[in-house]
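Lab meeting notes turned into a lecture example. A postdoc, R.K., suggested we walk through two folding results consecutively so the class can see how the record format repeats. The first protein's sequence and structure tokens come next.
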Amino acid sequence: MTAVALTIAGSDPSGGAGIQADLKTFYRFGVYGEAVITLITVQNTQAVSRVEVLPSDLVRQQIEAVMSDIPPQAVKTGALGSAENLQAVAEIARSFPIPLVVDPVMVSKHGARLLGPEAERTLKDRLIPRAFLLTPNIPEAEALTGLSIKTEDDMAHAASRICDLGCQAVLLKGGHLACDPIDILVSPTGTTFFRGRRISSRHIHGTGCTLSAAIVAGLALGFDLPEAIRGAKSFVEAAIEDAPGLGRGCGPLNHLRKG
């Protein structure tokens, strides 16, 4: 049986993030990838100059077409762009018999806002309660909780607060801490710490997209959540270390590495 994964996200024409990064990641894990486009960006490794959000009915129809013909074993969301798109995905996700991983993309690596205040409220009230796993970084977790996160204890507290929003589990990514990066998983089975190593590189465009896509690939292949996270972290670390050095700004990872 071929494992299938679906990404519902925005397009990055430079290929480093969004659906382009997700599909490359699925492929490297041996998973058949499907993609529903939610928004189109004009960007490269240096800047995002334009974002055009697709209508929610078009997003909904894309999802319905995929689910009715080639249903995936796991789904992820990335940048959704509007409250209407978030609402559409949340409504459809009510019927998902498969894990939904939500990467709460609010701001691009270049600082471009990808969600407005109304959309952020819809994310918290509608989509997060449908999530099997939420994968915020520290700035996103601070936005979701109103807390200041400076330490590992702060991270654990914030992850627990986010779980109170209704998702089954939270993987809070600690790459923004000054120490070696640590990710904290809070789930019904307890709290798990995933310690990593900091790699000095400016080529880190799409790390969040790639990590969540790799987790989804692992889930589609039948791994349990901690195993999927470990495999995803290993893949991302190696992809940063072997980055091809493309672009004049924040360059892409090496998605050609095998999962």
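The second example is placed directly after the first for contrast:
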Amino acid sequence: MPDGHPTPLEVLTCETGCLVRVIGRGTMRESRLVHQFIERYLDDAAPKHQGSDCATLDLSLCERLDSTFLGALVDLHKRHNQPGKLRFIISAPTQVQRSLLGVARLDRILATRTDTPTCLSEPTPLTVSDTVDPGELGAHVLECHRRLAEQGGPSAEAFARVADVLEQELNARVRS
């Protein structure tokens, strides 16, 4: 996908609940929409699906994830997964998981599977809006980097610095 164009996102009904597929790159532009969709699904729609209350993020056709998208995955994992009850799972072949998640060591903590659940519907596009409130996007990027910093590891300080700078910029914007 050329720069500046959103990555195609698809939503499908599957045997375990819903499946969101990222085709191409997952950037901050897509992460906010994917995060909001999965949050809404797990918080509101899941009880209506008679026990099928899992959201699967299919990354098998994903080429790259930026740090904001990775932080969104950590946030969804922390909010919705408990021992014995996984409601947010990432689906991708092992090599894709290592490539996309391994750099931040998230392949060790996020709930994953190597196969894709059986889909029961045709894909429906999930469309990224061309107009996004900069403050809302900034808050999303800030929260995602805070989540990554909490994980520790070799990049934790860098993620914390990014979050600190964003927080200062957002606070300055509110004051002006």
